């Protein structure tokens, strides 16, 4: 990826995938690898130099036609350099810095087919290390998703067990003279969903989920919706669902301070946990109308939704440039519950095939949110734009040559409940246009070219400052080999 802005860093990437049978129909192997490098921007608060290396693989064993056993391994390493005079300003709290992160994932899986019963079970362990901070986060997850076909009705059922452990010596606060650097907990859940075929064109889907958290006890969340095929062209869907989300490890731990604020700040910011946080609950109502013509050259859908939240978890600013617990901070925030809030909106999707070689896909989203009670009443929950639209036009010019063009629009984003500028400033509306093409030289080799942000659009907030970095016009050149 080559940018036309000489101060912005270029990106180079190569990835490879290999798969095949070691023993036909019995033992299979998949391997993948990636190397990606982005040069550091010569822009204050711009992107650092970043290198990503990853490798992974899966070994699959089929002892018979009904069973498959898989073993997966994935390793990802990310390194970042930030240098004074490039992406860092002189005088901040950091000097030229190097950050490195590792993530390792192991998984064992089993898929089984036994008549009308389908089983899918996975045991996995993830370990993530931030070596620059000495932080390690580990999770062990047992996940089960299964189905049973009753001919007219289909039952889905399963569960999950999750054990989490976080060790972070960067925690800033003491508890009885001791800084707590390790926190852990477990939670588990069971779920069941039944798709009932009531009559020929009407299905009723019911579901229930039971959550049990070591710190927050148990909760039951039901849901249900109807699917009605009006005729061969129109389908109507509608229903309700309840949701539940327990606070994360950091959010729910007293005397836990997560450092943030950016390297250019003279002092760090800190976000405090709170053991008095309540789990976040929601109730969603949704209605969808779908249409597809007889020739299947045109399809469209419209979805209207409304979600009511109780005790939504968010970060609330306590003070800026202040002293807390005997130290100076850029800001101090605390994880808090918002008593009552709502998000509602509209989503539309459209697919149009002009000819067998020209296709158009488009979607539009309208979103509004509001806090309905408490000190933050009337504010938006987040700084999402009200209006978002995306289109992509695809043209198969010849058997070997494809072209595509893409348009993305985001309306002005108003302030919401968040930290710093996100709570006080707006982001201007913007549009991005991209173009690209693919040429297939042979069945095993193709060449790709893309031009992104053709009109070099920049985005600013209501103070006239650059709010977040969107790269200017840039070119992507790539090739794909298959063997």
TrEMBL record:
SUPFAM superfamilies per UniProt: Porins
One CC-aspect GO term: cell outer membrane
Main location (coarse class): membrane
Domain TonB-dependent receptor-like beta-barrel per the UniProt entry, residue ranges: 58-454
Record keywords: Cell outer membrane, Membrane, Receptor, Signal, TonB box, Transmembrane, Transmembrane beta strand, Transport
Matching CDD domains: ligand_gated_channel
InterPro entries in the record: Beta-barrel_TonB, Beta-barrel_TonB_sf, TonB-dep_rcpt-like
Gene3D superfamilies named in the record: TonB-dependent receptor, beta-barrel domain (2.40.170.20)
An individual GO BP term: siderophore transmembrane transport
GO molecular function, one term: siderophore uptake transmembrane transporter activity
Pfam families, alphabetized: TonB_dep_Rec_b-barrel (PF00593)
UniProt keyword annotation of Transmembrane present: yes
Family per record: Belongs to the TonB-dependent receptor family.
Annotated protein name in UniProt: Outer membrane receptor for ferrienterochelin and colicins
Protein source organism: Chishuiella changwenlii
